[in-house]
Amino acid sequence: MKTPPTQILRQLAVAGVGTLLLSAAAQPALAQTTSPAQPPAGSVPPTAPSGPYSLQRAIDVALQNNLTIRQQQLSVENTNAILRQSRAAVLPTANASASQSWNYGTNVDPLTFQFQNQTTRANNFSVSAGLNLFSGFQVRNTIKRNQLDYQAGLSDIEKSRNDIALNVASSFLQLVLAQELVRTNEARVNSSQQQVARTQKLLKAGSVAESNLLDSQAQLASDELNVITAQNQVAFYKLQLAQLLNLTSATGFEIEVPTLPDPDDEASFSGNPDGTYQTALGLMPEIKAADLRVQSSMRTVDVARGAYYPRFTFGASVFSGYSSARIGRKLSGDSTIVPSGLIYEVTPTGPKAVPGLIAGIPQPRFETLPEGFTSQVKNNLGKQINFNLSIPILNGLQVRTNVQRSQIGVKQAELQAEQSRLQLRQNIQQAYADAVAAQRRYISAKRQTEALSTAYRNSEIRFNNGLLNGTDFNIAKNNLYGAESSMIQAKYEFIFRRKVLDFYEGRGLTL
Question: 438 and 338, same structural domain?
Answer without folding.
Answer: no
